[in-house]
Amino acid sequence: MDIAYFTKTLEGLSLERAAEMTVALGFDCADLLIREGHAVSPERPEEIVKAAKLFAEAGVRTPMATIDSTRPDDSTSRLVGCCGEAGIGQVRLGFWRYDPSRRWKLQVDEARRDLDGFERLAERFGVKLTIQLHGGTLHSSGALARQLLTGRDPVRIGAYPDPANQIVREGSEDWRLSLDLLDPWFCCIGVKNGGWFPGAYGADGQRAWHSDWYGLDEGMVPWNEIVPHLVATGFAGVLSVHSQYRVPREQALGKARADLAHLRRLVAAAKEQNHA
Predict the structure, then answer these.
(1) What superfamily would CATH give domain 2-274?
(2) What is each CA distance from 147 to 136, 167, 178, 179, 244, in whole angstroms?
(3) What is the predicted pLDDT for the residue at 180?
(4) pTM, whole model, 2 decimals?
(5) Bridge partners of residue 196, in order along the sequence
(6) Closest Cα partner for 230 from 260, 187, 262?
């Protein structure tokens, strides 16, 4: 398993500084976010190769990148091609948003046509393109994502479950069910935690509820159960650690260090138990 830091928190930093910060946090792998305002812009795909080299020089591998594309057009082809050239094995695609004003089946058919094109791009450039479970999309749960994945080559198209997204946003399932549904495409998992807390009662007498992100050892996602399962089943993909905390960056980075330490403790304990 590769434990990679999702570089979203490093928005606005140079490539060099982003690499330094990833090392300072204790990570030896990165999930490189390719987005305007971040270290690599999708308008400059050639920077992807440069980024991978800079991170490697700092001692950080880049097994994964994240892009926002949902159309297999020429600009996306350049992004995917540069990821392949940089040796990045997995690339997370963008989100196919659910539009409640349109029939679900029509939207799924459109997304599947897009994915047909992405599967060809993946084969052409020798990478795996993944679909992340995320709220507000046609793939918020394992069951929904499977509608898009069925019939696809798991060497080229992968599944990226995200248990905290499924709890805090939508798409909640037993985590075992999600992983079972997404086999054999399962190749990456989003690592963060979150939960819900009660708010005040409104004028109509109904209590409001709110969600937030919590430390890896504090939220509703049972990572103490998921990690041992991943170890026991020989999962060899990417654990992408997200720092979604709604706090200033330095505070979020401190929480990321704590999350990494907790995750590594869970992995070490699971490996020891597995070999007992």
Answers:
(1) Divalent-metal-dependent TIM barrel enzymes (3.20.20.150)
(2) 16, 20, 13, 15, 28
(3) 98
(4) 0.95
(5) 211
(6) 187
